[in-house]
Amino acid sequence: MHTILKREQLSEQVFRIRVVAPLIAEARQAGQFVLVQVDTEFGERIPLTIADADAEQGWITLIFQAVGGTTMRLAALQEGDAVPAILGPLGTPTHVEQLGHVVCVCGGIGAAPMYPIAQAMKAAGNRVTIILGARNHDLIILQEEMRSLADDLILVTDDGSAGRKALVTEPLKELCQAPSPPDLVVAIGPPIMMKFAVETTRPFAVRTVVSLNTIMVDGTGMCGGCRVTVGGQTRFVCMDGPEFDGHQVDFENMMKRLQSYKTQEDAARHTCKIGRNP
Amino acid sequence: MSHTTPESLQELAKEQWSSLETQLSECPLTAKQRMAIPQQEMPAQDPAARRTNMDEVTYGYFEEQARVEAERCLQCKNAPCIAGCPVAIDIPRFIRKISEADYSGALAVISETSLLPSICGRVCPQEVQCQEPCTVGKAKKDPFLSVSIGRLERFVADHGGRSVPQVKPETGKKVAIIGSGPAAITAAADIRREGHGVTVFEAFHKPGGVLVYGIPEFRLPKGIVEEELNTLQQMGVEVRTNFLVGRTRTLKDLLEKDGYNAIFIGSGAGLPRFMEIEGENLVGVFAANEYLTRSNLMKAYDRERADTPITRPRKVAVLGGGNVAMDAARTAVRLNAEEVNVIYRRTRTEMPARAEEVDHAEEEGVVFHFLRNPARILGDENGQVRAIEVLKYELGEPDDSGRRRPVAIPGSEYEIEVDTVIVSIGNDSNPLLTTTTPELEVNKRGNIVADESGKTSMDRVWAGGDIVLGAATVILAMGQGRKAAAAINEALLS
Fold it and tell me: What is the C-alpha separation between A198 and A249, in angstroms, rounded?
């Protein structure tokens, strides 16, 4: 039983839940994710990153934005309720090693999957700079956690309501221009942000890893729905990923594929709002 | 193609049976008389009606039909049909039980060697197995006129009653079964029967494997699979869903930390092959696995209730000629596609799909393009499929498989306008478990290497089904599950 031990609302649409999942907590490594289902009869299986875990106590933390049918229903669950199905940990773990200076670029909810990666990079002895960006002050999450972890934290918002008024790419570019550019950049956020982060580092030839979140059904390599084009090859995000060399990813194609079910999902959200969330 | 209603088939069979019964009461039938008995047609839903529903297409024989069909069997001494069955069911003997109206007796005969007759009776490619060498078909020079062994098997399974197999006293030993498809179900049952504890680990939220995510409701009702799984659970088999061995726990963990004495891997093929042609990652191109899983397991066909979306295609191209291709094409028909095209590079004769499924697809309006192969998939400015370019082929010299090799005709390409392409050219072995278990030896296709009994290179680990065979059939998977279970049971004795 994946009982919810703790539930918090981090921003208007973003929730953090701590759920009982001892085996996943024990096996998980940075960069891995789970598939969650709220209704095992008619519900959808959606990928969510493991934002944190405690193997001793047997729980994992999930952070999600309540924007679709499943995430809205997940958000409606309270402490003491159980999440019916959690499968994981899935995906290839982050390759962690001591490289020197690692810059973690997070856009919005991308801070959630980044947290364990930044933790692991720090633990491996790297200097970790975190660029934490969001559209506005209210959408920033994990600021305190990131601050206590990072050697440097750069806070940016699109509208300047918190930190510097800039896109994440601006401080990223400055870091790349510095006399000793980063040894590795990890960028996680909306596809468009990752695309621009990758274009920012490309001229400097700074290795840039991105973590992709595509459409998935099984999460075990069986359906192929999550496939992306990386370096001209078809790769499966669920097994080969979720992390890839950002300079090799065909973001245009990925963003189009993400829109495959847009009309249907809009309809589902509409139904969900009027039918299930009074 | 004309459709005969089930009612008229039953009427006909009633008449035939009453005259046969009279004949039989007078003296035994000669082979010639038996050969003259008309083959019984499978009652099915009207094609026009079934295009719009997910219900099972065929209804199964009426009792009178089964009785008439059973009399077509010549009870050959050499029983060539048995050799054609991958698990060597004693076919003449079970058919004789039908002649005696002893359906539970017939089921008992099948159950001696097969565990899943209600499933195999529906999905086995009988025309290339038991019915292929049938003397009746041989005499009539048409394997489709053989005794309808598959239909009789299904009749027996549906009418023979059910019982939960006896389980011997607990031995205190326990076995982990990875996967819950046909190989896994069979191994689980056979091992549990001997009194060993059995846990089935399934990655999905529902057990059943390909029987649940792959084969559609209209061909294999999920209620039947559920019944098989319920039987397992009544025997005391524990089923753990949402558990991915290789990730949630490794094989080693199961043996060393969790105390399992042995493991059977029956995790299936499950890695879709793509054509590797231009445009394959456009929006609107799916692996059949994805399309079918959305519809079957996630119930996306049920628009009202399911959260999982599925595209409602207008014009579809299905690439491939196997059972999965037929399932995908016929699912698209049921999801209201206006036009469904199957593109296959050989001819109808070489299609690996079950003949009945091809006939059914055709009756349902699926259009077949034989000797055609896709060259590339074309997209519009939004990255959405707009057409598929195909090349004409002709049959050349036979290849290694003995089938005539299709050869492209240069310059023959043309476009078919479609908005959805479903790639259904087969599956490779899913590498998830093998890459996380370096101790397991795999061949160059990624299949686990196992000996006759299913024993792998890893101590206390056996494997069977598609993960060993490559994509094959339900009955072969079942046969392998059986063999491995026997080997595991023997190993646990010592």
Answer: 9
